[in-house]
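A favour, since you know our structure tokens better than I do. Would you make up a two-line entry for one protein for me to read? Write everything out right here, beneath this request.
=====
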Amino acid sequence: MKETKIIRITTVPISLEKLLENQAKYFKNYFNIIIVSSQKEKLVEIGKQQGVNVFFIPFTRKITPIKDIIATYKLYRYLVKEKPTIVHTQTPKAGIVGMLASFLARTPIRMHTVGGLPLMESKGLKRILLNYVEIFTYALATNVYSNSFGLLKFIIDNNFCKKNKIKVLCNGSSNGIDLGFFDPLKIKATKKNHLISYLGIKNKDFIFLYVGRLVRDKGINELVYAFKRLLFKNKKFKLLLVGNFENELDPLKKDVIDEINSNPNILFVGYQKDIRPYLAISNCFVFPSYREGLPNVVLQAGAMNLPCIVSNINGCNEIIKNRVNGILISKKDVGELKKAMLKIFRDDDLRNKLSKNSRQIILKNFDQKTIWESLRNEYKILSNV
């Protein structure tokens, strides 16, 4: 079985580290796994951590035609040399480059997983271009996978892919959730107390947490505006932001950046490798994104018993059931977001009910072992091993 060579490709290595965390380490026990991505030093580090070989390709996340052609050629040459049975891509740029290169290299099984579509928030010529990129990517693939049922419907409704070529494995999710790792009982009180002290959080403070990229299409502008209004009601609120800005790709409004940097009730801590302590000290997770596949971070928050406020969009509304384990809100609606945050704070009974249900729902639907086994079985069937 190990003779089956599988090459996994993502645009940037952080996707291998977080979005597909530890997958390569698991699958190397059954197949010959190679991971391909950009950012050479980080890629090599992840390869060592997961015990697999790596290959560097200079992908960019922006639309860069010349660089993309060079990346496609380099990947094509590598695939011709390696002769993998399966090439499996995830993330948009890795998808189009990886599917084209593997098609030209005559790789027999070309799998692409869709985990979110930037085109959902694009307009005009950019939207038209991105539509054709998706159509072309799926046409080159032999098998397409959506990581949520809502995204699957969107792809089929927009005629991006034939219905018999695309499916969802299990209940969706690219990686599921490691419930042994994301367990509130694993975070010691001393660690929580140290973090609370370090951040200057007081006993009666109520912590709203966001984890992810600090960009426009994650709803950060609306989150900061809603939080600013909340402070008129109660100065004990804190907004904890875990993640990095991406000013080149999808910048926030200047007044929002200024507010984050100057408001003493907004605690910006940047990217954190282990987000569990931040989840453990928080009272509510807020994720007002405009578009998603099936977001890992909402699974992680739920596994840590946090009630969640999320946008009523595909993916998010497959994890969160309104007033069962969280609250669903309309995207881009500052007033509705503020109202939901206030409701979570004021209604102890509702908050406790949502918290109590959170982990059980994740356990039932998104256990990592089940999702990994489903993908392993897919690899076995497609490669006839």
